[in-house]
Design goal:
This protein has a single domain, classed as FAD/NAD(P)-binding domain (3-Layer(bba) Sandwich), CATH 3.50.50. By secondary structure, the protein is α+β, with helices and mostly antiparallel strands. Helix 1 links the parallel strand 1 and strand 2 (41-44). Strands 1, 2, 8, 9, 10, 11 and 20 form a seven-stranded mixed β-sheet that branches. Strands 5, 12, 13, 14, 15, 18 and 19 form a seven-stranded antiparallel β-sheet that branches. A two-stranded antiparallel ribbon has the order 3-4. Helices cover 24% and strands 21% of the residues.
C-alpha cells in the first residue's frame, strides 16, 4: 500500500465524495442524502451531461436525432456515429462480420476490449463516459439472484432489506405488462416444459424490470430516477460535478482523506478533503483508480468474470400475427444490453437460474419483425419473433484479470489497461449445453428462424463485468473490500458496482450492486452519526 504523504493544499471540504454517477454512485448519494440531509455530498463524473435531466436513459429520448447526439457524446474517445445500427449485433441473420462489428461499436459506448473476437481475451468489452454511466444505456432487467448466486456471508434478512430498497430506488416491477397475450402464451408454453420440480420463485415468469409505461412507450430507469429531486436542488448539500476526472484517492497513514480532481474543460487540478470516499466508477475503472492511487491489494483487478452468453432467434407458433407486430415508439429498440428488442407491449419473459439442473438465466423478448431482414415468404407469413438469450455463470479464476501499466495512459490520462480473460473447460461445456437448450426451447415455442443456429457471443458482450474489486468475509488476500464495501486496509474508502460481486452468478447484476450500495451507504451514515455524537 502506497501512501501519498506530500503536503496537499485542499481547496474545499465535504463529508462524502462519490466518484462515478452511474446507478451505484447515485444510490450512495440518494441513501446518504435521505438519511442524513446535513451531509455534504459531492458526486463527480468524468463524462459530460448529455441529456436533461442528467442521467436520463438514452432510450427515453424520443427524438432520434437528439438521441444519437447524446449517444455520441457518451462515447468517450469515439465522438462519431458508428456505421452499423445496434440491431446488427443481435439480428442473428445479419452478416457475421456485421454482427461482430456491431458488438464492438455499440451506440453510446466505446470499446476497451482486447483479443481475437473468435478466441480468448475480452474483445467486445465496453464502457461509457457520461453522467449516468452505463445506467443511461442498460436494459433494465432486475431479477433477484437465486440461492446459488447470493452472497453467503451477508445476513439474509439484511440483504433482502437492501434488495427491497434497491427495487424502490429503481422503480422495479414485474407487473407492467400484465395482460400481454404474447407474454402469457410464451410463459405458458415454456412453463409446461420447465416448471415441473421447480420452486415457485424459480418458475418461468415475467422479468422484473426497471421500467414504467408512459404515453410515449417504455420509460427506462436511469440514474436520474434514483437521484430524483437532488438534481433539482432539493438538497443544497448535494452537488453533481460533471466532466471532472478523479485522478487519485489521497491516502494518508492508511486513511482516505480526499481526492485529486481535474476539470476536463479547464485542466485545473484541485484537491478535495472528504471524511469518506466512494469509488463507483465501474468494474473496470474502479480498480484502475485504486491502482493509480497506490492501493494495490493482491486481489485488485483479479477474478474478472462476466456472463457468457448463448442466443438464438425463433418464430412463435400458436398466436395471431397481430401479436407479432409492434408499433414503433422511437425508443423501443434503443438499448445497449445484449438484445435489441421491442418490449413496448409484452415485456421480457424470465427463465430463472436453477442450479445444476438449469445453469442458465434465460431472457426472452419479443422482436419487432419490421426491424429484422426476412425473406419474402417470411414477411408474408409474419409469425411473431422472439429473441432467446441465456446467460451462464462463469468459473471464477484469479488469472482472469485487469493489467494496468505503470507508464502508459489511456485516452483520459489514467493507467492504460489490458484485459486477460479465458473461459474454462467447464464454461465451454456449459455453453455447449446452452446451445442445445436454446434449440430445444425454440422448438417448444415454434422453431428457429430459417438459417438460425445458436450463437455463442464473444467474451465481453454481456456488459456484466464482475469480481474486480470483490468483497470478502475476511482480509485474506482474495478480496478487495469487506461486506460493507470498505476497502481492506484503507479507512473511510468504499468501492461500489458490479465489481464487488464475489459469487458465480448468471442473473443480471445491477439490482445486487445497488443493494450492496445501500448497505455501504448505510454504513457511512452510521459512522457519520457516531462521529457527530462523539464530537457533540
Amino acid at each position: 500500500m502506497q501512501d501519498f504523504t506530500e503536503d496537499i493544499d485542499f481547496t474545499e471540504e465535504v463529508d462524502v465524495v462519490i466518484v462515478g454517477s452511474g446507478p451505484t454512485g447515485a444510490a450512495y448519494a440518494r441513501v446518504i442524502a435521505d438519511a442524513r440531509p446535513q451531509t455534504t455530498v459531492l458526486l463527480v463524473e468524468a463524462g459530460p451531461i448529455v441529456a436533461q435531466p442528467p442521467g436520463l436513459h438514452m432510450a427515453n429520448i424520443i427524438d432520434p436525432i437528439e438521441r444519437e447526439r447524446a449517444q455520441i457524446a457518451s462515447q468517450g474517445p469515439d465522438q462519431y456515429a458508428y456505421p452499423l445500427p445496434a440491431t446488427s449485433g443481435t439480428a442473428h441473420n445479419a452478416e457475421g462480420v456485421d454482427r461482430e462489428k456491431a458488438l464492438i461499436t455499440r451506440p453510446g459506448l466505446f470499446s476497451v476490449g482486447s483479443g481475437d473476437i473468435h478466441g480468448d481475451g475480452f474483445p467486445t468489452a465496453q464502457e461509457s463516459s457520461n453522467v449516468g454511466g452505463m445506467g443511461s444505456h442498460w436494459f433494465g432487467a432486475c431479477p433477484r439472484p437465486s440461492e446459488w448466486e447470493r452472497i453467503p456471508f451477508i445476513d439474509d434478512a439484511r440483504l433482502d432489506e437492501a434488495y427491497l430498497a434497491a427495487e424502490a430506488l429503481l422503480k422495479v416491477s414485474n407487473t407492467q405488462f400484465l395482460g400481454s397475450e404474447f407474454a402469457e402464451h410464451v410463459q405458458r408454453m415454456l412453463g409446461g416444459a420447465l416448471n415441473e420440480g421447480r420452486r415457485h420463485d424459480r418458475r418461468v415468469q415475467a422479468m422484473p424490470m426497471a421500467v414504467t409505461l408512459t404515453p410515449h412507450g417504455v420509460h427506462r430507469s436511469g440514474p436520474n430516477v434514483i437521484l430524483g429531486d437532488l438534481l433539482e436542488g432539493a438538497d443544497p448539500n448535494f452537488e453533481l460535478r460533471p466532466e471532472t476526472l478523479c485522478e487519485r484517492v489521497i491516502v494518508r497513514d492508511g486513511e482516505a482523506v480526499g481526492v485529486r480532481l481535474r476539470d476536463r474543460r479547464s485542466g485545473v487540478v484541485t484537491s478535495v478533503r472528504a471524511s469518506h470516499v466512494v469509488v463507483a466508477a465501474d468494474a473496470l475503472r474502479t480498480p484502475q483508480l485504486l491502482f493509480a492511487s497506490g492501493i494495490r491489494l493482491a486481489a485488485l483487478g483479479h477474478y474478472l468474470n462476466e456472463h457468457p452468453q448463448v442466443s438464438i432467434m425463433a418464430e412463435v407458433d400458436g398466436i395471431g400475427q397481430d401479436t407479432g407486430h409492434q408499433e414503433s415508439t422511437g425508443n423501443a429498440t434503443a438499448m445497449s444490453d445484449s438484445t435489441a428488442v421491442a418490449v413496448a407491449s409484452s415485456g421480457v419473459t424470465w427463465i430463472p437460474y436453477d442450479g445444476a439442473s438449469f445453469p442458465f438465466h434465460g431472457m426472452l423478448a419479443q422482436i419487432d419483425p419490421d426491424t429484422v431482414p426476412r425473406s419474402v415468404a417470411d414477411r408474408r407469413e409474419r409469425k411473431p419473433l422472439i429473441s432467446v438469450h441465456f446467460f451462464a455463470s462463469q468459473e471464477l479464476q484469479y488469472e482472469n484479470r485487469l493489467e494496468f501499466s505503470e507508464s502508459e495512459t489511456d485516452w483520459i490520462g489514467m493507467p492504460a489497461m489490458r484485459i486477460h480473460h479465458t473461459l474454462s473447460d467447464r464454461d465451454l461445456a456449459t455453453l455447449e449445453r446452452g446451445k442445445a437448450e436454446v434449440l430445444r426451447l425454440s422448438a417448444v415455442l415454434g422453431k428457429p428462424v430459417d438459417g438460425e443456429e445458436p450463437w455463442i457471443l464473444p467474451s465481453g458482450s454481456s456488459l456484466h463485468y464482475q469480481g474486480t474489486v470483490r468483497m470478502g468475509e475476511l482480509n485474506d488476500g482474495t478480496s478487495v473490500c469487506d461486506p460493507n464495501g470498505r476497502v481492506w486496509g484503507v479507512e473511510d474508502l468504499y468501492v461500489a458496482g458490479n465489481g464487488l460481486i464475489p459469487t458465480e452468478t448468471a442473473c443480471n447484476p445491477t439490482l445486487t450492486s445497488i443493494a450492496l450500495s445501500v448497505i455501504g451507504a448505510q454504513d457511512i451514515v452510521s459512522r457519520l452519526n457516531a462521529t457527530a455524537r462523539t464530537s457533540a
